[in-house]
């Protein structure tokens, strides 16, 4: 089962810009093992629109999802920098420290920081 969880991408975010993101806990229905993943895009107006896209995709694979919170990511691919900040009005603030650790696994050569600043 852990192998199946590992097949879920840890990070799916826009390649550049500042955009909303959510931290999502994915687990097999009724199972204890879980994986936290980051999803973010500028193509949505509200954080829940990201979840409304992710949840059905995960359900098709037999997983349950829970949004752990949200915020924003400023992604500068040219300078290899990311900044995680802000919060989601609907879901509350994600644990940005957790988000940064997940991002660092995928963007290993980036400088990634976080703050509780709203902008």
Description:
The chain has three helices and six strands, in the order αβββαββαβ. It is α/β, with parallel strands linked by helices and 119 residues long. It has one domain (5-115): Pyruvoyl-Dependent Histidine Decarboxylase, Chain B, CATH 3.50.20. It has a six-stranded mixed sheet. β2 and β3 form a beta hairpin. The termini are far apart.
CATH topological fold name: Pyruvoyl-Dependent Histidine Decarboxylase, Chain B
Secondary structure class reads alpha/beta
Q: What portion of residues belong to β-strands?
A: 35-45%
Give the SSE order as H and E letters: HEEEHEEHE
Largest sheet: spatial strand order: 1-3-2-4-5-6
Multimeric status of the protein: single chain
Radius of gyration: 14 Å
- Spell out the CATH superfamily: Janus/Ocnus
Report low-confidence residues grouped into runs of 5 or more: none
Q: CATH first level: which class?
A: Alpha Beta
Q: Helicity, in percent?
A: 25-40%
Q: What is the CATH architecture term?
A: 3-Layer(bba) Sandwich
Helix count, DSSP H or I runs of 4 or more residues = 3
Mean pLDDT figure: 95
Distance between the termini: 39 Å
Number of strands: 6
Largest sheet: 6 strands, mixed
Give the overall shape, derived from the CA principal axes.
globular
The total domain count is: 1
Function: Exhibits phosphohistidine phosphatase activity.
Pfam family, one: Ocnus
Protein name: 14 kDa phosphohistidine phosphatase
GO molecular function: protein histidine phosphatase activity
